[in-house]
Specification:
Layout: E1 13-20, E2 33-40, E3 43-47, E4 50-54, E5 59-62, E6 68-72, E7 85-92, H1 98-103, H2 108-116, E8 121-123, H3 130-137, H4 143-159, E9 164-165, H5 173-192, H6 199-205, H7 210-221, H8 225-240, H9 248-254, H10 260-271, H11 275-282
Antiparallel strand pairs: 1-7, 2-5, 2-7, 3-4, 3-6, 5-8, 8-9
Helix pairs in contact: 2-4, 3-4, 6-7, 8-10
Length: 283
Amino acid sequence: MNERLSISSTSPLRARFYDYKHFSYPWHFHSEYEIMYVREGTGTRFVGNSFDKFSAGDIILFGSNLPHYMKSDEQYHTGGSPLRVRGTIIQFEREFMYYSISHYPHLAKARNLLEESANGLFFPAGCSRTMPQLLDEIPRQTGIDQFISFLRLLREMSSVRSRQVISAPARSGNARYESSRIDKITSYINKNYTRCIELEEVSSLAAMNPSAFCRFFKRATGKSLKQYISDMRIGYACKLLLMDDISISQVSAQCGFDTISHFNKTFKRNIGHAPSQYRKIML
């Protein structure tokens, strides 16, 4: 699932605390970088082509477009369980301070850190006393203070020698080339998936006939155009359902579904819960 985040060039950094009964967001990716701090909780992390246990104190840096999924242990799913998963999530756009990080020697360690994160980076509990403190401060800050603390966090992460690469590289040179070719198409879909997108419209953007485009798109993404758009809509719906001031019918409409029954059916098929159940679980 390609998750759409509420991040832009004018608001490139988003930091928040999370407090859930258990992790339930499905296998997904997004173009933005993400730092996850697990203050409380245990389970299994799935990152790229790797999986391993996570526990309290772990910190993970997910690179741009790296698929990932956090699964809480079974005891978190037991009815009436008092257990919670809590921590901090920081997400920042792929182009965040791109020129400075790419060109200034002062930020060479940060550049190396972000390059390594393409396969995910794991920072074990206790590897730094400063990082948990910063991860507790950043969501509470705003403006330049938040940016300064965030740069301090990147500096600290780049200095941790015990950090571990999580996932083995999985793409060949040709796959990377094909991925860059389809970036233009997926970027267009990302901006327009909440409205009706016709096959001819997107295939003309790729300068292909519809049949050739369908084969190319399926080879590059592993999904048909229809399924890809549907997954994006469901991913966006998952985020909107975390806002308790918006009705389910409004979520359905904003995500581009023609009827609420179609939305309910698609959501349950993809997530395993009806939208109303998902909202109760997450909130």
